[in-house]
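Two proteins follow. First one:
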Amino acid sequence: MSTLKIAIQGGPASFHDVVAQQYFAGQAIEIVPCMTFQRVCAAVKNREVDFGVMAIENALAGSILGNYSLLQDYPVSIIGEAYLPIEQNLLALPGQSLADIKLVRSHPMALLQCTNFLEENPHIQALESADTAESAREIRENNLVGVGAIASKMAAQRYELEIVEERVENYKENYTRFMIISRKPLADKSQANKASVIFTLHHRAGELAKILDVFRDVSINLSLIQSIPILSRPTEFAILLDLEWEDYTTFEEAIGLITPLIVEMKILGIYKRAKK
């Protein structure tokens, strides 16, 4: 069995690592850490890896709009999705209490998920970093006393840190949605029942309503609708839709019907819907 190379944002014991291990369970894989989401997309595009894993949406912090822009700009395709329950914990070197922690580091999305905890502990300064697990690694490697990381229990185990406070996320029903990306679209669409589509419209009243009417008429469900800023045109937006269906032919029909109504469109991916 050949080894698949999987690019992830972050390092070992990050949430992206957990998703990669679960999604590709039963296959030989090699994790390729990347410090940015753009680097993940570039690694897939440049054939440095077989697949990439990137977070796209969190139940508490919302959509990662920049990642939708990357999926639009790079020649990659979504071939799958995964949902991971997220438990955030405050980690530090052994023997420290909450009062000893003066600085906490983590990924911006993780910090956003823990704003209540940070508000309740004003003596702790929050500092953004590239990754949850990498923040934990740096504490161990540099023996940083008084510094904490918000990360997973796996990161605590890997880097031999103590959990000072468990479950510091704002809400316990916390999950993150991840996309699995590839250079090529999903080959076998027989099991596919979901797609992510991004498009721009003419600037006329009612144009979006026409598109939504088409999907309603062919019984396609919209599980997400999101406006995405167009960076090259600051006052304009693209529309992102997640579409779900029971019969793939209805999706094909709907795409045919909306194509004359839009300015431009990219199907970011067609894939099988994951369970939360």
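Second one, unrelated to the first:
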Amino acid sequence: MIGLVTAAVARELDSDLPLLGAALERAGTQFHFVDWHDESVDWSQYSMLVLRSTWDYHLRRDEFLQWIERVSQLTTVHNSLEVVQWNSDKKYLGELSTAGIAVVPTQFVESASEIVLTKPVMDVVVKPSISAGSHDTFRYRNMAQEMSVVADHISRIVESGATAMVQEYQHGIDGAGETGLVYLNGVYSHAFRKGAILQHRPDMSNGLYAAEDVGEREATDAEQATALQVLGFVEQKFGAMPLYARVDLIPQINGEPQLMELELVEPSFFLWASTGSADHAAQAIIAANR
């Protein structure tokens, strides 16, 4: 029995779950949808747990990591505790940048006084290093003029236990959008396009994550090459490819891809955006369960 792990607040919002469940049924594989924080669950009944829409984890990350550590004594969890611990704090971007991978330039700061102003007018995004779904993420189109608000935002982030990230807004995303590439057991599955969430004020009306404009897209050779560079780093760091990975890329000024985020915890696969992708995901899960 396989457990597809979600959260009570996210289960009805996750469009992947019914598609993935139907694909597992077609393959004759038994599974349950199960909430990670449900204390009544006997986790030992599952041969494998696959983290899916645990989209509230960032609000109680320590509890979530402790839960993974505990259930990992009873069954196999994908992705692993080691991977989730590393990837659930976006400071990993600094590690990838140091390794020579093109990453959106990011300053990690504990106070506004640490920000390095690279130009008189900086259009920036400020967000917590521990976050998901654009939670507590704001764009400041002229940071110098809004520095008191930025300073308060950074203080709030640090008080929450995270590090503040300051990223210059990448205007290439406004036209091209973002390309998300999904890999299963290290093999490319499909891609999708996501519109720029912060081009305008994001819609947070569902109370959990910013509403997203998502559509079909074919990844370019350059995007796939960048994604494989990122995943090669992950494989070398952890000794194996993760069961699932989503590599989110946006264009640099010169048009070449750069990494915005690497999603190894609970990424949406947007299975509806690519024919056959639900079956690909089901087969990857089944293969990992053998």
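SUMMARY FIELD: The radius of gyration is 19 Å. The chain has eight helices and 13 strands.
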